[in-house]
Amino acid sequence: MASREEETLKKEEETGIAPNGEDDEEHDSKERVLQRYFLQEWKLVKSLLDDIVSNGGVSDPSSVGKIRSIMDKYQEQGQLLEPYLESMVSPLMFIIRSKTIELGIDSDDILHIIKPICIIIYSLATVSGYKTVIKFFPHKVSDLELAVSLLEKCHNTASVTSLRQESTGEMEAKCVMLLWLSILVLVPFDISSVDTSIVNSSGSTGEDELAPLVLRIIGFSKDYLSNAGPMRTMAGLVLSKLLTRPDMPKALSSFIEWTHEVLLSTTDDVVSHFQLIGAVEALAAIFKAGSRKVLVDVVPTIWNDVSVLIKSGSSSRSPLLHKYLVKLTQRMGLTCLPLAVYQLGAMWLVLLNVCFLVVNYIYLEGRTSSLDDNISSSASNKNNQLNYVVIPDNHESEENSNCPEDEDMDVPEIVEEVIEVLLSGLKDTDTVVRWSAAKGIGRVTSRLTSGLSEEVLSSVMELFAPGEGDGSWHGGCLAMAELARRGLLLPSNLPKVVPVVVKALHYDVRRGPHSVGSHVRDAAAYVCWAFGRAYHHADMRNVLEQLAPHLLCVACYDREVNCRRAAAAAFQENVGRQGNYPHGIDIVNTADYFSLSSRTNSYIHVSICIAKYEGYLHPFVDQLLYSKICHWDRSLRELAAEALSALVSYNAAYFADFVLEKLIPFTLSSDLCTRHGATLAAGELVLALHQCGYDLPCGRPLFWL
């Protein structure tokens, strides 16, 4: 443990990160500054932890609050804790284990010792994630009964309600014990062989009977599935690890019967509602952890219940329940499909990656003399392969449609129903449901044949119909991004997809005194980001030329900061991965994360710097002229007028002859916002033209007012 910390500190010294904070913070990156402050606070945390370890427990309750308050500061920078997690978690878990063995599980003092320690461990799990923290939990076979007994004692203790700032540690202790059990139930032995209650009773369990230890774990977990706190998720995690063991078919069948009763229950109270959510969440976790061989037989039973529940009022009233139902649906669909189907999209991605690996191998082998020849030959071979696979002619298309792959692929009827549920989930009113459905579409489509995946794409494209709402457009963009990111959206489909993405980048629908569409624009930027990661530069050259002006218009002129940053990130990803793009690096350096944080700076400075490059002035003017000067937000109209005048210096004649001619009629618009913005813009343009020394023709009927 100590050696790992020393290595971390040594690396920090080599990279110039000084713990004393003497470096100039103004010129350092955000991560370096946060790391420097964390190193300063780590000294305090380390001293407090050393006191706890030396005393065998928490002697000063205030130390727990200090550690927790420090850890909570870094919830968005959990990676800073990872080098120190082992030195924090392992000693604390050792205290819990050793004190329980020393005092005995029946001692009344054991909970007073472990609760403050569990508060610290739970804080670490909250910041760094439970998957990272449980790596350092003890996992001896003998610890299984110990953890179950501790959980039983916590479970049977009367609950004391308190404020979060004055936590008594009951909730944290239960969560830590459940996390500990989630790795202990994976012991590579029959659990009945480590159950001392069987040995002490001088008997044995029958073939159809479960070990008492297993029954206790399942009983506690079922109780916690009705909880509204984090214990529900962790209980589902324990059940998913336990019930998917090869020696637990009876326990799995029994749990499926119990969930059948819960899913069909008509009781409408709070406890039953959370129990319903917990049961669905546990089933989703089981289908994530279990193998296809174990779960494929129980899919029809569960699907009958889920298909009824997903159409019920309970699902429509609870976004959380609907989200878990969509998760469960997609995982049941994956269970019904074979694991490896090399469809057209996946084959295209494989060929692309193989080409890159060949080029990298040639470079690493040091064959620099013939590198250019090898790269060109590899690229030509790859293009030939891509042309054959991705853009077949009619004859090849007919052959592909009759290939053994399509004939041998037997898609169960339930998969069609699963895809229908996922497509309807893309239009749901809640973002979490749409996001889960989009990921499900990507995962299920990756196991379908090329013909079926094209049908899925066509269904997704229908979500962008003119009559669809903002939720449908948002879900469609998320699904499109998932398909592109996984290599399932072939380059031959880009001509019909890109125009839709461009429309989504500018999606803004007026509703009363405001508008909706920021989430659609953000998702459209995600689609563009996925394009940059998935395609070869030869396929993206024309696409990037179409998308770049629109991405930069959103990056400079969008009202919402998250949309501006998302569009800039998508442009940066494409520039970085697609090779040489004219002035790409200069634009990326200008429109960075921090410069776009201010709307005024984006309009007045960033856009002016980008407009000097060829191909961006006219799209910027059109964006301001047709979208921003008529915006419902007054401050945005004022900024748009000022930004429009700032562009005059690049082409005064264009603004005098074209822009003013388009702008003047808008000053007589019946819409008050348009009239106000056009009047402001006309005044700013005339002033800017005068300052540039451009003389407007005399006698020209510019002003009709």
TrEMBL record:
Residues 321-585 form the Tubulin-folding cofactor D ARM repeats domain. Gene3D superfamilies: Leucine-rich Repeat Variant (1.25.10.10). One of its GO terms (molecular function) is beta-tubulin binding. Residues 1-14 have a biased composition (Basic and acidic residues). GO terms for biological process: microtubule cytoskeleton organization; post-chaperonin tubulin folding pathway; tubulin complex assembly. Residues 1-29 are annotated as: Disordered. This is Tubulin-folding cofactor D. It comes from Hibiscus syriacus (Rose of Sharon).
